[in-house]
Amino acid sequence: MGQEMPQRRPAVHKVRLEPVGVEMEVEEGETVLDAAFRQGVALPHGCKEGQCSACKCILNEGDVEMLKYSTFALSDPEKETGQVLLCRTLVYSDVEVELLNYDEDLLSRSIAVKAFNGKLASVEPLTHDIVRIAIDLDEPMKFWAGQFADLTLHGAEITRSYSMGNPPSEPDRLAFIIKRYPGGAFSTAIGETKIGDPITVKGPYGSCFRREQRDGPMILVGSGSGMAPLLSILLDQAASGETRPVRFFYGARTTQDLFALDVFADLEARMPDFKFIPALSHVEADSEWNGETGFIHDVLRRHLLDMENIEEADAYSCGPPPMIDAALPILQMADIDPARMYFDKFTQATQA
Length: 352
Ligand code: FES
Description:
Pfam families: FAD_binding_6 (PF00970), Fer2 (PF00111), NAD_binding_1 (PF00175). The protein is of the alpha/beta class. The chain has helices at residues 32-39, 76-80, 104-108, 185-192, 227-240, 261-270, 296-304, 321-333, and strands at residues 12-18, 22-27, 56-61, 64-66, 83-85, 89-91, 95-99, 114-125, 130-137, 148-153, 158-163, 173-179, 198-205, 218-223, 246-252, 274-280, 292-293, 314-319, 341-345. The longest helix has 14 residues, at 227-240. Bound molecules: FE2/S2 (inorganic) cluster (FES).
C-alpha cells in the first residue's frame, strides 16, 4: 500500500474592510466576493463577474491579482489609481480595502449564500418570449425582496443568475421570470426540462433589495425580465403595510410585451398610493393603446417633475444596462440621493 500524500491546504489571508472595520478570511484561489458570500458578509455587488462595477473599491494595502474583467466596470485609469473589483480579486497577503459603495443597512442584513436542491414545479408562458417558472426547494431560502440566485440545470450543466419574482414570504417555492432568446442556451434548456427535474438554486445574491421603513416615495424602474425583482419588492412593500407612495415605471416594446397587468390592477386597488406606469416604445398602427409612449427614461423624467418629496425617495432600477444607464442620471437630476439609488444591471451572461 502506498502512503497517502498530505493534502496542501490553501493559504488563508485576512481582508479588512474599511471604513466599517469588518475583517474576514479569504483563501488563496477564491475571490474576495466569494469569500464574503461564504462567510455571510454582505458586500456591495451585482453581476459577480467583473462587468457591472458595483463591487469596485480602493486597495489600501496588500498583494492582489485581478482575474479577467470588463474595462466598462473598471477603467485603466481607475486601476492605476489602486481601484479593484472585489468579484475578480485574488489575494496573496493580508489586505485592506476601502469600500466605495456600501450602506450600514446592507452590512446589517447579510445572509450567507448556500446551495439548495430544487425541482421544477411549473412553467407558465407570460408573453411570446417570456416565461415564469416556479422551483420547489427542499428547504426554505431566506432572501430579501429584489435579490437573485444562480440556477443550475443538471444534464445541460448551465448556470445563469435570475432574480426571485416572488416575495420573501414564500421562501420554499421561488418564481423566476425568464426571457427566451433565439439560441439562448439556458432558455432552450429550460424548454427541455420536465416538471420534477432537479435544479440547483444557489443564493441569495444582490444588494438591490427593498429598504424598509423609509419616508418619501418609492420609485421602481424596469423593463423585460427586470420585472421579477421589482415585482418581488412591490409585493413585499404591499405586505409590509407601509404607506409611502410607490410608482412603477415599466418599459415594453409593444402591447404584446406587457404581462401581469391584473396583478398591478389588484395592487393599485389594495395599496394606499400605488401606480403602475407602463410605456410602449413602439405602438402598432391598429393599437388601442392610450397609455404612455416613448422610452421609459423619458417617461420617468416627465413624471418625476410632478412628484412631491422626491429628494426623500428610494429608487430601484432593474433591467438591461442601457436602460439603467439612461435612468440613473434622470433620477439624480430629480434630486434623488445617489446613495438611495439601487440598481441591478442584467448582463447577457447573467440574467437574460
Ligand atoms: S463587477 Fe463585481 S459584482 Fe459586478
